[in-house]
Amino acid sequence: MQFTAQQIGLLLNGSVEGNPDVTVDKLGKIEDAGEGALSFLANPKYEPFLYTTQASAVIVSEGFIPAGPINTTLIRVKDAYSAFSVLLEKYNTLKLSKVGIEEPSFIHSTAKIGKDVYIGAFAYVGANAIVGDNSKIYPQTYLGDNVEVGNDTTLFSGVKIYADCKIGDRVIIHASTVIGSDGFGFAPQADGSYSKVSQIGNVIIEDDVEIGSNTSIDRATMGSTIIRQGVKLDNLIQLAHNVEIGKNTVIASQTGISGSTKVGEQSIIGGQVGVVGHITLAKGTQIQAKSGINRSIEEPGKKWAGAPASPYSHHMRSQVVLARLPELERRLEELERKLQEKSNTNAD
User: Fold this and answer.
1) Does the first or last residue of the chain, that is N or C, have fewer Cβ atoms within 10 Å of its Cβ?
2) pTM
3) Out of 108, 174, 241, 314, which one is annotated catalytic?
4) Cis peptide, bond prior to residue 326, ω within 30 of zero
5) pLDDT digits (tens, 9 = 90+) for 45-93
């Protein structure tokens, strides 16, 4: 689709400086954008590219004063970065705009499909499943029996939602993520073997959650594994059975959280963090990457680091001491040598 600079200016509540009728049909980086592209300038270090860019239009902030001649149309807005992010969102919405049911796909006769839904080829929608209005189910996605998907939710290709799980409104789940697989429950037997403990609960994902690709969220043994509203999960995360992630928490890649642990709202957990089971992390807890959490954190809003984790300031002091260990070892050996020499002298 093509838009004029004037149309974009109206959309962003900005003003046009240059040719208002110039058209753009794509977005591009200012350093390599070509004709027909729309770009933006927010970081001053990219300003030199403004004077050489081939972009047809560039979004700049209202107060920007060029240092040289410009051959492109400027769209002046209150904040260039925020304005461009709005355009990116709208562009992505248009790009992903799909409606209709592709064939071949399977939709059980008892399933309920809302208005303006997209269901891609080779998707499976089980018995009594519900797909809300304006939701998108991409190809090769599986929705088991009794699964509920809210309005304006997107499940990308290869997502698997096991039976009885519930997905809220405006949720985004990226490719190959699995929701509701069995929790890791096995009872040790007298002969050393393990007997599987049936996992009969489900997973509840509340509104406005985004989950990256290849993430696994296990169903509860009984009750529910719960991802609260606004949570953002990265790729390659493992959340075990009966875990609860608090509202507006963010978790980075390769983190694993063991069963029945509860993470407080607005927490931040870095990549490759390991958390043991049956503990609670207080609201606003921040955990550095590669940390290991082996006990509950009760004080809210604190930073933690290390394995096993300790308060962030303590961990940093420990790192300073650790870096000095070779020097301390050398000094200790020197002291031991002098003491030995003194001991030998006294013996003589």
Assistant:
1) C
2) 0.83
3) 241
4) no
5) 999 999 999 999 999 999 999 999 999 999 999 999 999 988 888 888 8
